[in-house]
Write a structure and sequence with these properties.
alpha+beta; four-stranded antiparallel β-sheet
């Protein structure tokens, strides 16, 4: 960052007439009064160095004794992060310029103007907004806040999209005959192990937190889909082995349609809740989830009708 500080010291005022060809004077920093000012929320110990390093000062030739100091600084600041929405999280980072106790009673900070640029900004984040505030007129503290949001594209392609594909693959088992239970069981167990492995990989990239993040919700959703497919396949096979072939086929038809259609709505619901809570988008996803039930029931009745026609000899052989 580039910091520009300016203040008026009447003792340094001079007449322009005496400096006809000079618009500013450069003086040694030891001869200039300096305010006791420091940055808060630094990630380093500044107990022994409360002030920025003042070296070069310029007295503008306006007759008032205006002192200007400019410095480019690279400082580490600390800020609290909330990762509940990861990887769709938004953060607010702030840093304050504070007058020390000796000067805060008789001086005040005012922000004359600020500019910012995204040059050199991390490609993993986008800078959404920037504001600066002072507590009051003549305040001893000026706060600069940056609203940033994470760019989730890499996490979508590397983790979330594979999770959705794992859910879809688990639903393909509903297209396999109930009698072919051993390969279905083996495939679903392999999918569960894949989800566990993906969870381990994702957890290595996340700080250790005591709450669930949106990424955790995606992983849990994927695991539940695969686990439910395992239970549903077992139920279909059990009905088939008990000679309830019609009922087994109807249940599988229901699962084939209803469960598969819930995948985009479920992932959309998790995303909507992470971004803005229960909003219009979340309502649409819930409505979509509810609509999958009658669609699945319709598929089940169609399968029952088709099976009865086969048994009566009226359907296709």
């Amino acid at each position: 960052m580039t910091v520009n500080l300016a203040w008026i010291d009447p003792r340094l005022a001079f007449e322009n007439a005496n400096f006809a060809t000079t618009t500013a004077l450069e003086v040694d920093s030891d001869l200039v009064w300096k305010p006791f000012i420091y940055f808060s929320k630094l990630a380093i110990d500044t107990a022994n160095v409360p002030n920025p390093v003042f070296e070069d000062f310029y007295i503008i030739g306006d007759g008032r004794g205006t002192v200007v100091w400019q410095r480019q600084l690279v400082l580490p600041f600390s800020s609290k992060y909330s990762l509940r929405g990861f990887p769709y999280d938004n953060q607010t980072l702030s840093v304050s310029l504070v007058l020390g106790k000796g000067d805060s009673g008789r001086l005040g900070l005012a922000v004359a103007g600020t500019t910012f640029t995204t040059d050199g900004f991390s490609s993993l984040w986008s800078l959404d907004d920037y504001t600066n505030t002072t507590n009051a007129t003549g305040s001893g503290e000026a706060t600069f806040s940056f609203a940033i949001s994470r760019v989730p594209s890499s996490y979508i392609t590397r983790y979330i999209l594979p999770m959705a594909l794992l859910c879809i693959v688990s639903c393909t088992t509903y297209f396999i005959e109930p009698s072919a239970f051993p390969p279905r069981f083996t495939g679903l167990i392999a999918l569960m192990l894949a989800v566990v492995t993906l969870n381990v990989i994702v957890s290595q990239e996340l700080p250790k937190v005591q709450y669930l993040t949106t990424m955790d919700a995606f992983i849990i959703t994927t695991f539940l889909y695969v686990f439910f497919s395992l239970i549903a396949s077992t139920a279909c096979y059990t009905l088939h082995s008990w000679k309830y072939t019609t009922e087994s086929a109807a249940l599988q038809a229901f699962l084939r349609v209803a469960v598969t259609l819930t995948i985009p709505f479920t992932f959309g619901l998790v995303y909507s809740l992470s971004k803005s809570g229960f909003s219009a988008g979340a309502g649409v996803c819930v409505a979509g989830l509810l609509l999958t039930v009658p669609v699945g029931v319709g598929a089940a009745f169609w399968e029952l009708s088709r099976s009865k026609q086969k048994q009566q000899g009226g359907g296709p052989k």
